[in-house]
Structure formats: C-alpha cells, structure tokens
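Hey, resending since the last one bounced:
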Amino acid sequence: MTTTKKLKVYVIAGEPSGDLLGSRLMRALRQKTNGNVEFFGLGGDTMEHEGLKSIFDISELSVMGIIEVIPSIPRVLRRIKQTVDDIEAKRPDVVITIDSWSFCSRVHQALRKRNLGIKQVHYVAPQVWAWKKRRAKTMYKYVDLLLTLLPNEPKYFTKHHLETIFVGHPVVESAALTAEGSAFRKKFDIDEAKQVITILPGSRHTEVSRLLPDFLAAAHLLQEQNPDIVFALPTVKTVAKRVKSMVKDTDLPLVILDNEADRYSAFQASSAAIAASGTVALELAICKIPHIIAYKVSPLTYLIASHLVHIKYVNLTNILLKRGVVPELLQHKCTPENIVHEIHELLKNGKAYDKQMTGFEEVKAYLTTGTQTPSENAADAILKAISC
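The structure tokens again:
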C-alpha cells in the first residue's frame, strides 16, 4: 500500500507479550507502506526498538489477578485518561490495541465517547470461549475491527455485528525458531555435557513473586539430584529488577538473560522448561521444547476464577488440542516436588516426551494461515480498514 501522506498509527500494548506482537506488526506495517508510516503509543522494549516512544512504562500495568489488581485501579484510571488525551492530541488514522482487554477496552470506550472519528482496531480477541462470554455481544460498540490469533474465535464475534478476521498466531514467527543452542552454550561457557533447564516465572510482578520461589526450590532439588544441570532464567524489563533481587543470594548455577537473542538461544539449548502459563508456553511448544506449566494466584482470586472460568485446561496448547499434552500444576499442585516429578518424566525421553513432540507439531500447523506471516496478514487487514 502506498499513500500520499504518512500514516499515523497509534499502537497500545500493555504487557510484554503484546509488546512483542506490536513490534512485529510495526515492522509489517512499515514494509507494507514502504516506510510511509509513523508510530505513537504505548509499548515496551521491542516496540521502542522499532521506533516507538512509549508515553509511560508498561510495567505499571503488569498486574495479574482479580483481587491483586484492586490497589492499582486509581493509577490505571489516570493512565487511561492520559492515553486517550494523547490520542486526541495526535489524531492518528487508526488506534490499534493489543491484548490487555481490561485496559484497552476502557481506552476504546473513552475514545468512542469523544467521537473523534478514528478507526479503532483490537488485536488478540478476549478469550470469551473461556469466560465473560457477554463481552462478545458488546465489542462492536467500541471496536471497528477485531483480529484473532485462533481460527475458532471469529464465530463468537461476527454474529454480534463485529468484523472479525483470523490472521494467524505470531508465535509462528518467533525468532526462537531460528536460534541456535550452541550460541547460548558458547556465550556463557556451558559444556555440551551439561543439561540446560529454562525457568520462566512470568512477566508480571505478582506472577514472579508467587512463582519464582517455588521454581527456584524445584531447581535446587533438580540440581541436588544432578549437579550437571545449568538453569537459564530469561526476564523482561517489567520485572527484571525484582527477579535479580530474588535470586541474588542463590547458589544455583543460574544464568539470568535480559535480551531476546539470549532468551531464544537458551530455549534451543534446553532439555526442558518450567513456565508460567501464557504466550511463552506456546512459544516453547512451537520450538518443541519439553515443558510443564505451573501457576498460582491468591486463594480468593482462585476461588472467584473457579466459578467464572469453565474450561478444562488453562494452557493454550492443551486447549487447542483438546487434550492434556503439557502438565498443568495449578494452585495447590504448584509445588517444588510436583515440578521436579514432571520434569523428570520429560527428561526420560519416554512417553511424556513423545506425547509433547507429537502435540507440538499439531499446534504449529493449527496456528499457521496462508503464505504470509500472521503479522503481515494483520497489517493487510488494518490497512484495508483504514482505506474504507
């Protein structure tokens, strides 16, 4: 697409997974417009690397849990107003919000009230198939176009008058697919005889606080049983300071990674991974890294969620395949001993390992669409919406 004037695109990503999607979308839009585009908005490190100057640090929005989010509400409301004011001042051709529907929906609603005539797009559908199905009935009031990552999602929204397009899941574009484990071993002087296990405790402060102690305790048990294990701990800007503080006194053979290249080469060097639920788990599946999911929230949040969420699995790999391929250690099951048991099962390279490898092949095929990348498909859909 070629335009006579530079397109003004406002992109909002409230957490690291959305930031990664946003950076890929920005690249695709730049390529599709021959560079005739400028970006504004809210994002993290990878979007800033693509030229975005974020209006505030997205770590302020990194809160997870029904109860845990309450103390941050006044601050988040101020940030919503700041964001909408900035959009009105910039007057972009389109506003694209990515995931983080709790924050982004309020931005969209406030924009509609101001009647600015700006195209509004949301990228990554709220998981209405899991909970809060009523959201599908009202999104058309605030969003002109919805882009989904999963092929089964459009049907939930199109029947409620919202144009919805499946573009594919950007995880299939991950740089992890082309990374090399040898680069990780060489950079950090890790012998080929040593096993690498990657620890991924999440990108939100509440996740790291709850999960990392158990993950580290599991790592200690594993290391006691096999001194030749080395642990990789990738982190992101939103929680890097907290992670480093929590591990500073550990005597584990632990490598902390704070950039994408090292993160992905660690994936490829890994014999297994321990991960919080989320996009990263899908990335591990795409890369065929054996892994387990462990997650817990406050008891009250869990109690409320158990009455609201009506799905058998929480991990997208299991949800997509409709069977339990990846072990899910949730809430009271999230213990160091259970984590160690499941990791041992994977390291045997037996039935548990084979089940994951077969399932991961199916997931990759399920998330791919057409000859273009998902980000290119998303860019095409957005540019078409702008031109209408």
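The domain at 175-366 is CATH 3.40.50.2000 (Rossmann fold).

Sorry for the duplicate.
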